[in-house]
Amino acid sequence: MNEMSNSNLIDRTLWSLRRAWRDVAGAAKDGDLSGILHPDLPEADQDLVRRRIELCVSGTGGEVSARARAADLGRGYLALNALGRERFLRIVANELGTERRTVDIAIEAYRSAGNDDERDRAQSELRQALESPRIKLFTQFNGLPEGIKFLVEMRADLLPLARGDAAMAAMDRDLKQLLATWFDVGFLNLQRIHWQSPAALLEKLIAYEAVHQIRSWDDLKNRLDSDRRCFAFFHPRMPDEPLIFVEVALVTGISDNIHTLLDESMPAEDPHKADTAIFYSISNCQRGLAGVSFGDFLIKRVVDDLTGHFHNLKNFATLSPIPGFMKWLSEAEEAGGAELLKPVEAEKLAQLVDDTKLTDVLARPDWIQDEALVSLLEAPLLRLCAHYLLNEKRHEYARDRVGHFHLSNGARVERINWRANVSKAGMTQSAGMMVNYRYKLEDIEANHEAYRGKGQVAASTAVKRLLRL
Amino acid sequence: MNEMSNSNLIDRTLWSLRRAWRDVAGAAKDGDLSGILHPDLPEADQDLVRRRIELCVSGTGGEVSARARAADLGRGYLALNALGRERFLRIVANELGTERRTVDIAIEAYRSAGNDDERDRAQSELRQALESPRIKLFTQFNGLPEGIKFLVEMRADLLPLARGDAAMAAMDRDLKQLLATWFDVGFLNLQRIHWQSPAALLEKLIAYEAVHQIRSWDDLKNRLDSDRRCFAFFHPRMPDEPLIFVEVALVTGISDNIHTLLDESMPAEDPHKADTAIFYSISNCQRGLAGVSFGDFLIKRVVDDLTGHFHNLKNFATLSPIPGFMKWLSEAEEAGGAELLKPVEAEKLAQLVDDTKLTDVLARPDWIQDEALVSLLEAPLLRLCAHYLLNEKRHEYARDRVGHFHLSNGARVERINWRANVSKAGMTQSAGMMVNYRYKLEDIEANHEAYRGKGQVAASTAVKRLLRL
Amino acid sequence: MNEMSNSNLIDRTLWSLRRAWRDVAGAAKDGDLSGILHPDLPEADQDLVRRRIELCVSGTGGEVSARARAADLGRGYLALNALGRERFLRIVANELGTERRTVDIAIEAYRSAGNDDERDRAQSELRQALESPRIKLFTQFNGLPEGIKFLVEMRADLLPLARGDAAMAAMDRDLKQLLATWFDVGFLNLQRIHWQSPAALLEKLIAYEAVHQIRSWDDLKNRLDSDRRCFAFFHPRMPDEPLIFVEVALVTGISDNIHTLLDESMPAEDPHKADTAIFYSISNCQRGLAGVSFGDFLIKRVVDDLTGHFHNLKNFATLSPIPGFMKWLSEAEEAGGAELLKPVEAEKLAQLVDDTKLTDVLARPDWIQDEALVSLLEAPLLRLCAHYLLNEKRHEYARDRVGHFHLSNGARVERINWRANVSKAGMTQSAGMMVNYRYKLEDIEANHEAYRGKGQVAASTAVKRLLRL
Amino acid sequence: MNEMSNSNLIDRTLWSLRRAWRDVAGAAKDGDLSGILHPDLPEADQDLVRRRIELCVSGTGGEVSARARAADLGRGYLALNALGRERFLRIVANELGTERRTVDIAIEAYRSAGNDDERDRAQSELRQALESPRIKLFTQFNGLPEGIKFLVEMRADLLPLARGDAAMAAMDRDLKQLLATWFDVGFLNLQRIHWQSPAALLEKLIAYEAVHQIRSWDDLKNRLDSDRRCFAFFHPRMPDEPLIFVEVALVTGISDNIHTLLDESMPAEDPHKADTAIFYSISNCQRGLAGVSFGDFLIKRVVDDLTGHFHNLKNFATLSPIPGFMKWLSEAEEAGGAELLKPVEAEKLAQLVDDTKLTDVLARPDWIQDEALVSLLEAPLLRLCAHYLLNEKRHEYARDRVGHFHLSNGARVERINWRANVSKAGMTQSAGMMVNYRYKLEDIEANHEAYRGKGQVAASTAVKRLLRL
Question: D202: which chain A residues are within 8 Å (Cβ-Cβ)?
Answer without folding.
Answer: 199
